[in-house]
Please model this.
Amino acid sequence: MEGNIVVKEVNILVTAEDIQDRRDQVLSRYTQFRADAKLKRDKLEESRHFLYFKRDADELESWIHEKLQVASDESYKDPTNLQAKIQKNQAFEAEVADHSNAIVKLDNTGSEMIARQHFASDIIRQKLDELHRLWELLLSRLAQLDC
Model:
């Protein structure tokens, strides 16, 4: 037994009105197709922006964790080789200062995305809050090193 073949009835367009109706149907479907494609493209663009934001935020978070480990090192209390430690501390402070623009940039990007009601606004807000918490912790540890 062979598969059932469905025969579709073919409408033969005879009158100008039939042709115009068919044209309107095709144009209507095409317009809907373009609108759906634009929505998908916009959603993909939002996803791309979110992934860039997340990548940058994860890199900064990783960098902060690395620097928190350095700042938590208790060897700075040892009075030997004080000049080298002062230079190391100054270099560390300069590196942290250089990265301060990264958190500002992420803040601006995340705030723009939230203002545009990005689909991941809650995740973006949480990530920014966590980055600010870690950044403040790093700055407080850095201040402790200066004392």
